[in-house]
Prior knowledge:
The protein is of the alpha/beta class.
Amino acid sequence: MTAIIDYDAGNIRSVEKALLALGEEAIVTRDKDIILSADRVILPGVGAFGDAMNKIRGYGLEDVIKEVINKGTPFLGICLGLQLMFERSDESKGVSGLGILKGEILRIPDEPGLKIPHIGWNSLKYPNQGKLYLGIPEQSYVYFVHSYYLKAEEDDIVVAATEYGNTLIHASVEKNNVFACQFHPEKSSEVGLTILKNFINIKKED
């Protein structure tokens, strides 16, 4: 069973639908006991960094998320969920993120002719081998919707990257039982469903 953390962010139901389409039992919840007993946990989301962190803390979910990760349960952040796993964001100065991974979230720089937010399909390249991308060739396209992007401090955790204008975007990271995508696998057609299926097949670390 996969627990999808509910903290009043957007796009949660579309993740649930994608998992159900794969035959995976999925529960949208903020119940601590359900989250901690799940086989795997997903933190999805669309919205503002500061507002999201306030809600996560208001619902008492920060410690729950960290306990899940410390237990070795596979954990996946999607879009805003990826950004929240890092230390800070340009979007909400002075608001600390979960700090599970090291790095910062920066605003995509303005360039002539470049639209922000970045909405659309971009191809991926793989700086490092990632479990989420088994069976998915480089240059596969996935769907992005974001104005801010990840710059990870540790290059070796970056398993997928893309470029938007002149900016290199760390599009996906993996470290131990922690996984995250800036793009939306649930909106990325067959490639995205394969990514979610790969996540479902990852076993808990001892």
